[in-house]
Input
Amino acid sequence: MTIRSVSQLIDHHNVSSVVLEIGEDYFVFSVEDLLKHLHAGGSSDATLAELTLRKITCVFENERVLTAFEILESNGDRYLGVVDTTENLVGILTDTDILSAVDPTVLVQKKPSAIW
Output
């Protein structure tokens, strides 16, 4: 898959990133990655196999939301995969998803540095 085809996929589906399954691992390629690649002089005809992709840390779907947020925060990631009991990817969480779903007072009580 080329950078050009991924950018068309992102545009067509109006999303900010795509998730790729390679072997048993999941990786993300985002608009930000696309812009960095092109800004560095990379070709739009380059394949994703030629790039260093970010592996997604995953949590099980029954994990607590605040635990998921702590994992995102500690890893410095923007994406967290959600897997079922057979470790199939069933969703993606972002820090924005979590922040919009959790009462801000809970975050402040849990860990004040989480929002600063």
